[in-house]
Amino acid sequence: MNAAKPPIRRAIGLMSGTSLDGVDVALIETDGEVIAGFGPTGYRAYTADERAVLARALDEAGGLTDRAARPPALAEAEAVVTRAHADAVAAFLVESGLTRADIEVIGFHGQTVLHRPALGLTVQLGDGAALARAIGIKVVHDLRAADVAAGGQGAPLVPVFHRAIARMAGIAPPLAILNIGGVANVTFIFSDESMLAFDTGPGNALIDDLLRERLGLPYDDAGAIGARGSPEEPLIDWLMRHPYFAATPPKSLDRNWFSHRMVGHLDTPDAAATLTAFTLRSITAALDHAREKPARWIVAGGGARNTALCEALGQHLQTRLTRAEAAGWSGDHLEAQAFAYLAMRALRGLPITYPGTTGVAAPMTGGVLAEPDAEEGNLPEN
After folding, report:
1. Is 136 marked as binding a ligand?
2. What was the pLDDT predicted at 260?
3. Contact predicate 132/361, CB 8 Å
4. Which of 35, 131, 193, 275 is deepest in the core (most CB within 10 A)?
5. 310 Cβ partners below 8 Å, 6+ apart?
6. Is 328 known as a binding-site position?
7. Is 23 annotated as a binding residue?
8. DSSP letters for 196-243
9. Residue 59 assigned to a binding site
10. Which residues in the chain show pLDDT less than 50?
11. 301 is in an annotated binding site
12. 21 marked as part of a ligand binding site
């Protein structure tokens, strides 16, 4: 007799990206395999003071050799992250007319401050146990650590979700789903539905850092500032010789491997144009690693709103990019939805990482479960 099919449940995903802007919240309905529907979304911005705390933590995290260590700047930032996520969930439930009993699980990514898988280090700030106690819902967190401990890259984690939503939308492979966040990553889904995924290089983070420092702006709206400038092509050529771009995927990138200060000698439009072109070139180079040319590219994340970048990218890829919204998806909340899906898969002991997505030896589950009234513990293996 076949086992009973698991019921469809509501799950909430939380994502705080490398751009340090705030917390995305999203609800989906899923059994960890099929996505039955998308629910409401929400957002809780970090305050200027909170962003300053997180920026200090990023600076201090570079010296970590123990992923469990919490020197003062990181301890302060972890408290900020946990409190902001608890606030975000509480507001989301009220605004959506939901109660704690309506939610099966919350997927809590936390705030990445260090990601160096070659050293066995990946650090996402956020106290999962404290969050579960604060909101009264079980939480799956620390979703990258098991993969890194098993020799994987621990990133990207979203490809299995990308494949699920492509199936839901009836979009046939070969397909590329590109997320341009602080760091950009791509999922190639081939005709046989196998996946190859990796970080392509910097996304928005360097451009955002530049404009925040020079102009007090959070980002380059529609790419207008960069569009006024001219990229310094020799610098971009030199940057593209970094060994990361020639490395065979799967592979992942630490946010701090590159700095916006490498364009410090340029005026702001030229600096923004150079950083934008660097993002463009690194994404285009990702196609060299695909064994099958995608028939379609779907782009999500904050970079999808950079009109100048996306138009130039379409020209370089010789294809028209489709924004996630045009596919019926939420471009701004796709990663939060993904962590809701991953949390439900983790609860069932289903794989969340694969050889083609993180380089781990075999498909594996991950995450740590925190119950509101119990000690946290590792989730079951598939």
Report:
1. no
2. 94
3. no
4. 275
5. 299, 303, 304, 321, 323
6. no
7. yes
8. EEEEEEE-SHHHHHHHHHHH--SS-GGGHHHHTS---HHHHHHHTTSH
9. no
10. 1, 376-382
11. no
12. yes
